[in-house]
Design brief:
Strand order of the largest sheet: 8-7-10-11-5-20-23-13
Radius of gyration: 20 Å
Order of helices and strands: EEEEEEHEEEEEEEEEEEEEEEEE
Shape: globular
Distance between the termini: 37 Å
Number of strands: 23
Helix content: under 10%
Oligomer: single chain
Largest sheet: 8 strands, mixed
C-alpha cells in the first residue's frame, strides 16, 4: 500500500488518492494546511474539538451553508456515485446534542438523501462542518444515455431533536449529468488525483485540477479532450500541462512534456488550470475524458473535483490559544 502527503508550496497541500495498476484505490492520505489558499481534503476523521461556546440557541437558516453548486457529472448509469461536500458554518457543540440531520435532494422525480447523527458530523477547514452528499446514478432517472439538466435543484435539511423537526430549505444550484452506455473496454488507469480546493476568495480565481494516468496497453493512448458542460463564462480551462510523472510530488519543470500522449506501460500527470467566475461559490465536476487508442476514440469518467469559495472563517468552531 502506497501512502504520500505532498506539499506543493509553502501554503498548499494536496490530498492524493493512489490506485494500483488494476485501477483499484489503495488508500487516501490527508493533511490540513496552515493558510486558506489551496486545500485538498478527504472526508474522513479530520475532526477537532471546537472551543466551548455558550449554549444559547443559534438560529439555523439557509445562509449557514456554502451554496449553490454549479455541477457537471459524467458517468455510467449503474456504476457512478459522486460524493459532494456540503459545507456548513454552525456550532459543533450544538450539533453534538442528540441531533439527527438529514439532507434531501430533489432531482426531478428522484429524491436522494444523506443522514447523520450530530456526533458524526465532522469539523473540516477553518471551523466549517462537512456533510457528504452521495449522488448515485442508479437512484436517478438517467438510464438512457444522454445529457440531463436540473436547474435550481431544491433540497431540505431536516433537523430533528427531542421529537421536534425543523426544515431548512437549501438551493443546491444547477446540475448537468451526462451518461454513457457503458465503460470503454480499453482505458488508462488512474494513478493519483487532486480532490478539492478550498479558499477564502469571493472573486475570479484560478485553481488546478490534476490527475495521473497509466497506460496498461501495448499501444499509445492520447488524451484528446477534457470536457464539462458548464457555461464558459462561469468555468473554463485556460491551460493544460503534461508531466512525465505518475504523482504530483514527481512534478518539476524538467519533466514537462509537450505531447498529451501516454506511451505503453508509462504514466503521465495532467495539471489543468481552471478559471472560475466569482459568481460560483461551489463547483463540482466529474468531467468527461476523451482519448484515442489507435484510430478509435473513447470516453471515460474523469476524476471528481470540488472547488469551494468560503465567505469567512467559521469562528464557532475555531480553536482558541
Amino acid at each position: 500500500m502506497n501512502m504520500a502527503i505532498v506539499q506543493i508550496s509553502e501554503k498548499t497541500y494536496i490530498f492524493i488518492i493512489f490506485f494500483n495498476k488494476g485501477g483499484m484505490p489503495e488508500h487516501i492520505v490527508s493533511q490540513v494546511e496552515n493558510s486558506p489558499s489551496q486545500h485538498f481534503i478527504e472526508a474522513s476523521n479530520n475532526t477537532f474539538q471546537g472551543s466551548e461556546i455558550k449554549r444559547e440557541v443559534v438560529p439555523l437558516n439557509s445562509s449557514n451553508f456554502v451554496l449553490p453548486y454549479v455541477s457537471y457529472v459524467y458517468g455510467i448509469p449503474n456504476n457512478t456515485v459522486a460524493h459532494v461536500m456540503l459545507y456548513w458554518c454552525y456550532p459543533k457543540t450544538l450539533v453534538n446534542q442528540s441531533v439527527a440531520v438529514t439532507v434531501t435532494m430533489n432531482f426531478g422525480s428522484s429524491i436522494l438523501s444523506a443522514s447523520y447523527n450530530g456526533r458524526r458530523i465532522p469539523v473540516f477547514y477553518h471551523g466549517y462542518l462537512g456533510i457528504i452528499l452521495p449522488i448515485n446514478f442508479s437512484q436517478l432517472d438517467l438510464s438512457v444515455p444522454g445529457s440531463y439538466k436540473f436547474l435550481d435543484v431544491q433540497g431540505t435539511l431536516h433537523w430533528i431533536q427531542e421529537g421536534h423537526m425543523q426544515r431548512i430549505p437549501l438551493n443546491l444550484g444547477n446540475w448537468t449529468f451526462e451518461t454513457a452506455k457503458e465503460e470503454p473496454e480499453l482505458r488508462p488507469n488512474i494513478t493519483a488525483f487532486s480532490l478539492e480546493n478550498l479558499e477564502f476568495n469571493g472573486g475570479m480565481r484560478e485553481v488546478e485540477y490534476s490527475f495521473g494516468l497509466y497506460n496498461p496497453l501495448n499501444t499509445t493512448i492520447r488524451l484528446v479532450n477534457v470536457s464539462f458542460k458548464i457555461p464558459s463564462n462561469l468555468v473554463r480551462i485556460i491551460k493544460i500541462e503534461v508531466y512525465n510523472a505518475s504523482t504530483p510530488y514527481e512534478i518539476d519543470k524538467s519533466r514537462l512534456v509537450s505531447s498529451k500522449t501516454i506511451p505503453p506501460k508509462e504514466s503521465r500527470y495532467f495539471v489543468i488550470t481552471l478559471r472560475i467566475d466569482g459568481k460560483v461559490r461551489s463547483l463540482f465536476i466529474q468531467p468527461k475524458l476523451v482519448y484515442s487508442v489507435g484510430n478509435k476514440t473513447y470516453a471515460m469518467p474523469g476524476l471528481p473535483f470540488q472547488d469551494t469559495a468560503l465567505p469567512m472563517a467559521c469562528t464557532y468552531n475555531m480553536k482558541t490559544s
